[in-house]
Here is the input.
Amino acid sequence: PPRSTLFPYTTLFRSIGQMGGLPAGVAVQGSHAYLATRRRLVILDLTDPRQPRVVGQSAILPDVISGLKVGGTVAYVDLGGTRLDLIDVADPARPREMGQDVPAGGITTFAVAAPFVYVGNRSGLEILDTTDPQQIRQVGTLSSTIPADLALAGVRLYVLTGDRVDVVDVHDPTNPHLLGSSPQLAPAQRI
Here is the structure.
């Protein structure tokens, strides 16, 4: 590799490709990686990990992607903290929008256990049923916790509120209930 003339002990890096835009998130499922690059969802084929290649990308989205999750053949995309888009990725070469929802309190964070999406926002927790992407319905709420981040494990939703972790039972998404809370912790942003 070439050496820098300004810094003789530094090896220069050689660009071998570029995806465009500052990635806001990545999700990997099977042999595909899904990249949130500003206002597009880009899908990579990882069959040969030494040479990932772009196989598809969404149309330009109406806002910047703030978050991304993939479950099954659906990419769940948070647009600007205000809108949740569902993108069909069954054919990675031709991703297409399936539906959208605008949660009342916006989107701070979200977790997915299809067909349910757990949205944390300034109003608390909203649970959306995406069985019909054209008619996304809110089926449950919990206002006693204000999520900064969410982690889902089975029927338990772990909710980071900033200085504690709340444990929420979501076995019945229409009736989530708080099981308990950790003692106060040092402030944190991610669970």
Notes: The two ends are 40 Å apart (CA to CA). The longest strand covers residues 23-29. Residues 149 and 191 are 6 Å apart (CA to CA). The chain has a mean pLDDT of 89.
